[in-house]
Amino acid sequence: MEVIRAKDVWKVYPDGTQALKGVNLSVNRGEFVGVMGPSGSGKSTLLHLIGGLDKPSEGEVFLFKKPISPMGEDELAEFRKRKVAYVFQFYYLLEDFNVLENLLLIAQLLGIKDAKDKALELLEFLRLSHRLNHKPYQLSGGEQQRVAIARALISEPAVILADEPTGNIDWEEGRKIFELFRKLNEEKGITFVVATHNPDLKPFFHRIVNLKDGQVVD
Ligand SMILES: Nc1ncnc2c1ncn2[C@@H]1O[C@H](COP(=O)(O)OP(=O)(O)O)[C@@H](O)[C@H]1O
Ligand SMILES: [Mg+2]
Predict the structure, then answer these.
(1) Beta bridge mates, 27
(2) How many CA atoms lie within 13 A of 173 on its CB side?
(3) Closest ligand to 42 CA?
(4) In terms of C-beta distances under 8 Å and separation of at least 24 residues, what long-range contacts does 72-75 make, across chains too?
(5) Cβ density class 162-190: b for 16+ within 10 Å, e for less
(6) Rounded to whole angstroms, how far apart are CA atoms 192 and 17?
(7) Neighbours of ion ligand 2 (CB under 5 A)
(8) Domains of the chain and any CATH numbers
(9) Is residue 47 lining ligand 1, measured as CB closer than 6 Å?
(10) Average pLDDT for residues 120-138, to the nearest whole number?
């Protein structure tokens, strides 16, 4: 089943920058896809569009077969809450709250039931049980990213979009994040689309989409 489709997608920013120039992409349920290409090639723009954070200038994006152009902000927000989760290079954790609270606040916002049980289970899965009462500044980069991943998982998304998720983490911790993604993909069936400019991460992907100057290349 196709979960994401970009059909001849163009993105032109207000200043005239053509960030995407006719991109086609199809991702099926259960895939683990890498979006690779140098800085400025359009990776983040593409992830924003397939995550419903932004709309294409031309062409169409389909999420679970539904075109996003006609969707209002509320409908798109529902997709982002329930089906598609985002993991960023910078973790965007709430600095004044501890690890458990960071998850519970999101869960409350999303109206998730049994939030505390779910949060504790996820944090155990992500090997963070010993960090529940720590605040973000007390954690390593890899641990902070694992908290951000736990936060993304609490809504039980079908798809995770990750934009340079290991961009601020050393190689060893970054490798662990990718192994975790593979485990979530294999054991929970979560579909992944991961943008990275780091060629060392190639072996983790089932399939790679290469971008150059806003176009898919071989
Ligand atoms: N909000 C924006 N306004 C104008 N240009 C932008 C904006 N965001 C990105 N760009 C430009 O679009 C191109 C693609 O950027 P981006 O999608 O961030 O690429 P990548 O993630 O591969 O580095 C770049 O030339 C970048 O400078
Ligand atoms: Mg980027």
Answers:
(1) 4
(2) 16
(3) 1
(4) none
(5) bbbbbbbbeeebbbbbbebbeebbeeeeb
(6) 28
(7) 43-44
(8) 32-42+72-217 (3.40.50.300)
(9) no
(10) 94
Cα of 205 vs its chain's centroid, Å: 15
Residue appearing with tokens 């779910």: 118
Separation CA 181–CA 193 (nearest Å): 10
For 89-127, the pLDDT digits (tens) are 888 999 999 999 999 999 998 889 999 999 999 999 889
Could you tell me how many residues make up the chain?
A: 218
Of 15, 43, 44, 45, which is best to mutate to test ligand 1, by the most ligand atoms within 8 angstroms of its C-beta?
45
pTM (2 d.p.): 0.93
C-alpha of residue 83 to centroid of ligand 2, in Å = 22
